[in-house]
Amino acid sequence: MKNLVIAVGISALAAGSAQAGGLERTTQSMALLFERGNYAELSFGSVKPRVSGVGAAANPGSPTPGVPSGDMSGDYTQLGMAVKTAINDRLDFALILDTPFGAKVNYPMTGYFASGATADLKTSALTAVVRYKVGESFSVIGGLRSQTLEAVARVPFVAGYSVVGEQDRGLGYVVGVAYEKPEIALRVALTYNSKIKHNVATAEFFGLAGPFRSNTVIETPKSVNLEAQSGIAKDTLLFGSIRWVDWSAFSIAPQQYVGATGRPLVSYDNDTTTYTIGLGRRFNENWSGAVSVNYEKQSGGFAANLGPTDGRLGVTLGGTYTRDNMKITGGVSYVDIGDADTTLAPVALGLPAGNFRGNKAIGVGMKVGFTF
């Protein structure tokens, strides 16, 4: 069992689009630390979300009843790189480069009230982390994360509003513990990712008025990952994870926008918990495969007009080819994105402005790893 190679973990590459309101692009997993010896990998993902809705039935909160929004979500790709080295029998060190959060919004010109609205949020993170083995089964994990964030948005249905947030760098940390029993491929790892605070220099405009300059504090949320796997039969692995993210503490609230509308540009009412369970199988010395299902409960209430999604249910199929010191993993995911309603009126009135139904995302991912 200790040499079992299974195609797990590819879902983060293939289906990152529909997590946590569309902002979460990776799960910030520390699984790399458990690769044997010295190891390096390069990963690629491509995601095609399809999110569209229609103006809600006539009411004071719906200015364009029955008008379709068109597909407001943008396709995107992402790259990741990582290297891990075994310093000695007890200490491992890794560098991980990824894009943990992001958003790409582009409402087409359909006559829907949000037509022409756009948004683009980009992050990049470099994590330096170590794992120290305490005895034969237990280990502790700790490290630092340096993250950049920048964002721009245009919201013409709010008095011709637009905003530019310059790139800012923030620092955070990761800590965790793990238990292993290699002879049955058992591993349980619990990791905590801290929030990261950014002070973003912001320029806001209302039509031709502006720029109005200020600093906007944006804190990417803290999260907890519980990841587990165990052999359950010869060449067969059961795996799963639970990921909690503190999205209720997240907001993007530029000063002038809040003054004009009384609400943040982007915020979430509830935290999210995402569950994943899967089964992996080694077919021979070179080939293995896996299937997994992931689920995120709908929160209810109103979603943001720049992120009209709520919850998800997805399935991922993956395969790994291993030869000598190389392994190539590929996967494809289909995600049913949860229905959501948006509003322009005060939330307490309960008046929807748009209804988003039947949305989905398809993603593909590939990862190439080398042991050296």
Describe this structure in words.
It is a single chain. The longest helix is centred in the C-terminal third of the chain and has 7 residues, at 255-261. The chain has a single domain, classed as Outer membrane protein transport protein (OMPP1/FadL/TodX) (Porin), CATH 2.40.160. With 372 residues, the protein is mainly beta. Mean pLDDT is 91; it is low at 14-21. The protein has a 14-stranded antiparallel β-barrel. A three-stranded antiparallel β-sheet has the order 2-21-20, with no helix packed on it. Strands 14-15 form a two-stranded antiparallel sheet. Helix content is 3%, strand content 58%. The protein is globular and about 65 Å long.
Features:
mainly beta, 372 residues, 22 strands, Porin, three-stranded antiparallel beta sheet
Tell me the fraction of residues in β-strands, as a range: over 45%
CATH topology: Porin
> What's the number of domains?
1
Major sheet attributes? 14 strands, antiparallel, barrel
Mean pLDDT, to the nearest integer, reads: 91
Tertiary shape: globular
CATH architecture term: Beta Barrel
Q: Helicity, in percent?
A: under 10%
CATH class, named Mainly Beta
Q: What topology, given as strand order, has the largest sheet?
A: 1-3-4-6-7-8-9-12-13-16-17-18-19-22
CATH superfamily: Outer membrane protein transport protein (OMPP1/FadL/TodX)
Count every beta strand, where a strand is a DSSP E run of 2 or more residues. Answer: 22
Q: Catalogue the unreliable spans.
A: 14-21
Alpha-carbon distance between the two ends: 22 Å
Rg of Cα set? 22 Å
Work out the helix count. 2
What is the structural class? mainly beta
Give the H and E element order: HEEEEEEEEEEEEEEHEEEEEEEE
